[in-house]
Each structure stands twice: as structure tokens, then as C-alpha cells.
Backbone:
């Protein structure tokens, strides 16, 4: 029954001839583990194609959707493994290519009649590199997009056609949405088509002319059939390789990048296989840089392409010397040029710190995305809506000129020219107690740098302690501690626990004993105008309004010292220094109000509430 | 199919700059410390392929307020330098010692006035030209009495002379 189907098929397609061609392959001097590189390369390419297609099912190439869709893939069952395998196999492809080329050069397998095998094989290497260049930015992370920015400018420096090539690649004159679609098309269609063409010529030529003897590695050995001796070696080598790569994919996976954002600090570096060129260009500058980026690589490529023909005119000894020079010299130079910048970066503390910070941000982005999802604006919005990430950045930019935010050990954000109160744990019972401490209220952490250091509040607080004995001072301190608790209850910092009894007593002390409401408004007592409103003191809404305009009657009014209004005009007008959403982030950060792992991911903990998303 | 295909590809190449020269109020004069550069981001409307964004970062600028007296309308009180390195487009940051600018990509160093500096380890400074200076104007808002720093942001191509 089967033989009849097989006969029918063979009559139509002639498939038996292909199988016979394979079974008739002869190893001129017996099998060798060196021959396995070819088979492994082929099957790794097949794995890349399969994992690639699987990834394509869920990936979306645009600046706003790239990072989000990659994160989505990482979250799907098996997605992280598939993506990890795609990444690790790609790294292995580069290494295996070099191994394969080394073997071919060392054994002079490029000699006639196999020149076309050599040429098509050699041209496959730039294809693999372009695959890598086009693939890395697709993840939408800082790393890949910074790389394509620099790489496109290197292409742009090519004489005459450089600028046009760059624009064609980027889809304009800057990296944007079209850049990702162009890279995606290159990566999934153009390069695969080129590789298929080159590979089919390459393999058919190998079949036609047979395998070259492995020269220096195996001088003896009798002709042996390829199947099953070499085939088994191929399969064993492949199995070991794939097992190792699968382990890497499962254990570490592909890099999880921080979402690309031009306002986050990043130190760009090329991938490891380009570090040699990166190092080479250090020694050229200005107009001569093109020697490192274009001339040397092109010259190397043309030299290697011409190798079969050069070898033909060389006497045997020269040929051996030449091939030894190419293999040892080429690999050696490449190895040294790769090691130097890697080693330099490894010993650069600032570089390592920057990379460690990026890893933390990437983890934070993944954590927040798992908890709250990714908005349509894309990955960058995940971190921009996060008070823990973006709060300090905004604070440094807009507040740290005057306000420090440092703890007792001095850790945190120092002020440029310190003059305003230290906002570390602002609105906590401890902070308020410090304000009500006569020793500290006029000190550098509170009013010391402002016009209030000789003002009514300082006088009043000191007056509570005037002429008192040790025990009486402690009583007053205890009462002020209760007042601080009452005000901290107004602030409502997340994570602060206050005793309801303390708060109640503190409130009555404020009104009765200390007469705070003579100057301050506090719920139903007191009036606005002479001192800041204590209702909702240091709460989210209070801080937002204060930062928007401290000269409102509700706050300092005409007594404001130097703090500018950051959003005095209504509705995010152009005159405002900060947008309302930015003030909200700063306020949340000051209040310690952000999401941490192991909390329930309720919408109120998200970096931005749904209702206020338009501001 | 050939001719429209070629036009489609060429169209991809010839897409013009995503934005023209932008004039932006970027900072209040009194918010800038004297003698110490501040890095700010210029945002604006951007057409990116099929999408139009209303507020996208378009470029980053170092602002340096110089000491000494200067009249209100004279832009010389503030120096604005494009933070895009003229070598290969990375964002130029602050050097470790805080006394100069340094590009993290190939460590080109620039003085605070934008001039290229030679590097201590002897390797060449890769920048083909100094940091691009941008036109600056001081604008006084009569209503609020604040003086704003207004920068005209222009993106120049990297490499060679501007």
C-alpha cells in the first residue's frame, strides 16, 4: 500500500533521487566532528525561523506597541522560552559562523571547484549581522533603539549615498514608527529571502562538488559514506548545542529591556559582536573615522571573497602562511579588540552603576505592567506614570534647586543651593514633630534658609518652652507629639500608623491649649489668610494645590518667600512650568505613595487614576 | 508595479524633517542656577509615520545661565546648546567631575561653552564640530512679571561641519 503511494509520489516529484543524493555523499577521509558545524548552522537557522514565526504572531512593530507586545509575549505560556531561544540561538549563530569559516579557511575548502560555495557562504555572514542589527531594536527597549540610532548615523557617514541609505532605513531623518516597520520587514522578509537564495546555491554546490577533505585536521582516513557516520555526529553535536541553548533560554531568557525613553539616562553600547569595530573607531577621528567603520570591514570582506583566486596563484607555503595569518591573526585581532572595551567597561564603576540602575528600572517596568497593564501610549508611559521612578527625576529637575530630600544619614537628593525645608518624609508625624521642635524649626531642615526663620511661627514654638523646667519641657514635648500625630492624620501618608486616641487629643490641643487656630484654619476653626491651612495638611490634594501656587490665600499668600508657582494658570496653560499630572507624580512621590510588589494592584495605587488621565 | 514600487520606496527616503524650527519657552530665568548647566527637554507636536503625537520629546538642550549683569531682552545671559552630540547623535551628558560635558558613546568632551576639548588619555575627540549653539531670547511676561528663556530648537545633521 505505502509503496504504491511512494511510487506515485516519486513519479511526480522524483524525491527518491534527492534521498539517493544524500545517501551517496562520501566523506573523502572519513567523518569528522569539524564537519558538524555546517549541519548545526542549518538547523539553528531553522529554529530561528520557527521561533521567529511564533513571535510574529504576537509582536507589533511601532514605538508605542513594541515594548508592550514583547512584554505580552514574555507573559504568555512558553512565550518567554520562545523569545529566549530566539535570542540565544542568534548569539550562537554568530559564534558558529566564525567556527565554520575558520574550519573552511584552515582546510582551504574554498579552493576550486568550490569557489561559489565559499562566496555564497561568506555573503551569508553579513546577512546574519544585518539580522542582528535589525532584530535588537524591535524589542522597543533603550538598548536596541540607542543602537539603531548610532548605527544609522554610521551608515549615514558613507560618502555620497550614506544620507539616502540612512533615510531609507529610518523612514525619515529620525528613529520613529517607520524605523521599526522597516527593520521588521528587513528582519522577517528581505534578509530571509536573501539567505534562502544564498543557502540554496551554497548547499546545492556542496552536493555537486562534494565535501573537501578536512586537510590539516585529518590527513588519514578512507572514504566513508556520509550516512550514517557523519549524520550521527551531526545529530549529537546539534543535540548538545540545542540542549545548552534551551537551558540558557529557560534559565535566563532574552534580555528584558527598560522601555525606550529619551529622558531616561542610558549609556549606549553595541552588541558584543560589534565591540571590535567600536574599539577600532576609538583610534580614528573626524574624516578618518570612515576608515574604521567602512574601509576596514569592506576591505576584509573583499579580501576574503577573493581568497580562492588569490590562493590559486600562491605557492603552497605562502598559501599555508596566508591562511594561518587569516585564522590566527584575524581571530586574535578580533578577540583583543572585543576584549578591550568589554574589560574597560567592567572596571568602570559609573558604567556598571548605570547598567544596574537600568536593570532595576526594567524590573520595575515589568512589575508595574503586570500589575496595571500597559497604556496605549506604550512602555515609556508605564514608568512616567510611576511616582517611584519619575518622582525623583521631576524633583531633581524642578525642586532640588532649593529643597533637599535627604534622610538623617544624608542619603537622597541633595539640594543645589539649599534654602528650603528638607522634604524627606514630609507630612509624617516625625517630620511634623521636627517642625514643632524649638531646636530644629529654625534649622536648615526647616525654616533656616527662609524668611520665616525669624517669623511668628518660630517665635510661637519657642514660646511654648519659655522659662520651663526640665519636666515641664518634656510635658510640652509630649503634647506637641500628639499635635504632630493629629496633623499627620491630615496628611495620611501610606504606611503610617497613628493611634486614634493620640489624634483626638492632638486635635483638641491644637484648638485649646496651643491656639494654633488663632492663625491657622483647621476644619471648622480659624480663618485663612495669615498662615497655611492645616486642613488636609500635606495630603495629596494639599501638596498639589500648594505646588501649583503657594501664594494662594490658602497657603502663604503675600508672606511667600521665594517658592515659585508651578501651575498658577488654570488648565495646563503654556505659562505653567509643570503639568498637573507632573505635580501629581511629585506629590505622590513625596508622600511615599507608590506601588510595591506584593501589594494588591488596586487602581488607586496605579500611577495615574483613570478619571484624571486627561490632565 | 515597478514604477509605483520605486516611488513608494523613494517616498520613504524623502520624508522631510518631522518638525521645523521650534520656538519654545523652556525655563524661567530665575529657576536657572548661575554657572551650572541644566538639561531640559523640548517637546512638541510630532508626526511619526501614521501617528500624530501632541507632546513628544523632540530634542534635549543644555541651558547655562551666565553670571554678571545683562539687560532683560539680551539673550546673552543664557547659553543654549543642543545636547545632541554632533558625532553620532547620542545625548551629551555631564562628565564625572562635573566640570565639562561628555558624550557617553565615544567620550567626546566639550567645555561648558560648547567647544570641543581634547581628552586626557590621548585618544582623539570624535566630535566633528563643537556643540551646536541655539538662538536664545529672554521674554518678559508682563502679567506675572517673570522672565522666560525662549529657545529656538533646530536639529542639525551629525557629522562634518554644521
Residues:
Amino acid at each position: 500500500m505505502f509503496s504504491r503511494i511512494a511510487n506515485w509520489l516519486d513519479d511526480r516529484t522524483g524525491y527518491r533521487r534527492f534521498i539517493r543524493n544524500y545517501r551517496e555523499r562520501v566523506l573523502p577521509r572519513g567523518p569528522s566532528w569539524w564537519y558538524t558545524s555546517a549541519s548545526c548552522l542549518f538547523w539553528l537557522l531553522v529554529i530561528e525561523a520557527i521561533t521567529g514565526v511564533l513571535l510574529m504572531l504576537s509582536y507589533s512593530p511601532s514605538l508605542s506597541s513594541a515594548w508592550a507586545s514583547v512584554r505580552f509575549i514574555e507573559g504568555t505560556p512558553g512565550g518567554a522560552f520562545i523569545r529566549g531561544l530566539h535570542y540565544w540561538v542568534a548569539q550562537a549563530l554568530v559564534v558558529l559562523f566564525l567556527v565554520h569559516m575558520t574550519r573552511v579557511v584552515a582546510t582551504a575548502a574554498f579552493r576550486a571547484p568550490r569557489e561559489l560555495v565559499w562566496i555564497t557562504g561568506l555573503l551569508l555572514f553579513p546577512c546574519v549581522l544585518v539580522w542582528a542589527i535589525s532584530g535588537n531594536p524591535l524589542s522597543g527597549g533603550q538598548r536596541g533603539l540607542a543602537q539603531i540610532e548610532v548605527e544609522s548615523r554610521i551608515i549615514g557617514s558613507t560618502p555620497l549615498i550614506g544620507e539616502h541609505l540612512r533615510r531609507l532605513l529610518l523612514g525619515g531623518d529620525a528613529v520613529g514608527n517607520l524605523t521599526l516597520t522597516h527593520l521588521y520587514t528587513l528582519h522577517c522578509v528581505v534578509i530571509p529571502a536573501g539567505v534562502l537564495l544564498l543557502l540554496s546555491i551554497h548547499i546545492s554546490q556542496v552536493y555537486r562538488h562534494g565535501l573537501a577533505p578536512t586537510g590539516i585536521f585529518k590527513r588519514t582516513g578512507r572514504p566513508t559514506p556520509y550516512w550514517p557516520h557523519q549524520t550521527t555526529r551531526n545529530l549529537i553535536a546539534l543535540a548538545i548545542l540545542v540542549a545548552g541553548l534551551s537551558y540558557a533560554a529557560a534559565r535566563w531568557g532574552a534580555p528584558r529591556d527598560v522601555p525606550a525613553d529619551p529622558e531616561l539616562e542610558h549609556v549606549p553600547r553595541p552588541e558584543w559582536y560589534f565591540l571590535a569595530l567600536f574599539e577600532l573607531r576609538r583610534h580614528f577621528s573626524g574624516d578618518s573615522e570612515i576608515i574604521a567603520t567602512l574601509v576596514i570591514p569592506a576591505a576584509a570582506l573583499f579580501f576574503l571573497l577573493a581568497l580562492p583566486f588569490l590562493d590559486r596563484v600562491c605557492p603552497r607555503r605562502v598559501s599555508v602562511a596566508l591562511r594561518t595569518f587569516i585564522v590566527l591573526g584575524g581571530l586574535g585581532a578580533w578577540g583583543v579588540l572585543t576584549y578591550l572595551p568589554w574589560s574597560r567597561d567592567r572596571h568602570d564603576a559609573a558604567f556598571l552603576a548605570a547598567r544596574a540602575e537600568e536593570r532595576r528600572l526594567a524590573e520595575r517596568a515589568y512589575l508595574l505592567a503586570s500589575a496595571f497593564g500597559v497604556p496605549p501610549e506604550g512602555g515609556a508611559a508605564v514608568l512616567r506614570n510611576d511616582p517611584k521612578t519619575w518622582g525623583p527625576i521631576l524633583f531633581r529637575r524642578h525642586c532640588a534647586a532649593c529643597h533637599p530630600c535627604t534622610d538623617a544619614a544624608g542619603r537622597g537628593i541633595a539640594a543645589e543651593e539649599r534654602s528650603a525645608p528638607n522634604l524627606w518624609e514630609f507630612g509624617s508625624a516625625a517630620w511634623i514633630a521636627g517642625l514643632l521642635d524649638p531646636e530644629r524649626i529654625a534649622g536648615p531642615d526647616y525654616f533656616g534658609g527662609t524668611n520665616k526663620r525669624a517669623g511668628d511661627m518660630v517665635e510661637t514654638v519657642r514660646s511654648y518652652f519659655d522659662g520651663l523646667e526640665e519636666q515641664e519641657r518634656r510635658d510640652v514635648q509630649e503634647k506637641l507629639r500628639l499635635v504632630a500625630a493629629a496633623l499627620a492624620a491630615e496628611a495620611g501618608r501610606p504606611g503610617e500608623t497613628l493611634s486614634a486616641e493620640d489624634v483626638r487629643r492632638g486635635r483638641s490641643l491644637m484648638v485649646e491649649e496651643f491656639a494654633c487656630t488663632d492663625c491657622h484654619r483647621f476644619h471648622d476653626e480659624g480663618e485663612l489668610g495669615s498662615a497655611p491651612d492645616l486642613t488636609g495638611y500635606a495630603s495629596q490634594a494639599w501638596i498639589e494645590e500648594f505646588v501649583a501656587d503657594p501664594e494662594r490665600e490658602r497657603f502663604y499668600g503675600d508672606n511667600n518667600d521665594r517658592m515659585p508657582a508651578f501651575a498658577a494658570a488654570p488648565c495646563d496653560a503654556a505659562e505653567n512650568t509643570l503639568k498637573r499630572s507632573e505635580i501629581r507624580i511629585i506629590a505622590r512621590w513625596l508622600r511615599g505613595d507608590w506601588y510595591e510588589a506584593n501589594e494588591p494592584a488596586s487602581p488607586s495605587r496605579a500611577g495615574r487614576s483613570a478619571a484624571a488621565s486627561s490632565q | 508595479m515597478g514604477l509605483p514600487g520605486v516611488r513608494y520606496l523613494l517616498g520613504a527616503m524623502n520624508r522631510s524633517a518631522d518638525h521645523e524650527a521650534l520656538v519654545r519657552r523652556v525655563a524661567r530665568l530665575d529657576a536657572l542656577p548661575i554657572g551650572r548647566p541644566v538639561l531640559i527637554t523640548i517637546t512638541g507636536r510630532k508626526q511619526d509615520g501614521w501617528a500624530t503625537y501632541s507632546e513628544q520629546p523632540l530634542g534635549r538642550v543644555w541651558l547655562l545661565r551666565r553670571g554678571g549683569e545683562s539687560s532683560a531682552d539680551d539673550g546673552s545671559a543664557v547659553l543654549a546648546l543642543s545636547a545632541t552630540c554632533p558625532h553620532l547623535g547620542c545625548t551629551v551628558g555631564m562628565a564625572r567631575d562635573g566640570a565639562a560635558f561628555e558624550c557617553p558613546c565615544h567620550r567626546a568632551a566639550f567645555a561648558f561653552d560648547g567647544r570641543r576639548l581634547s581628552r586626557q588619555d590621548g585618544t582623539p575627540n570624535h566630535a566633528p564640530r563643537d556643540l551646536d549653539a541655539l538662538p536664545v531670547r529672554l521674554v518678559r511676561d508682563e502679567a506675572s512679571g517673570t522672565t522666560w528663556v525662549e529657545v529656538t530648537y533646530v536639529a542639525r545633521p551629525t557629522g562634518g561641519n554644521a
About this structure: The mean pLDDT of chain A is 90. The CA atoms of residues 72 and 235 of chain A lie 34 Å apart. Chain A touches chain B through 47 residues (CB under 8 Å). DSSP finds 23 helices and four strands in chain A.
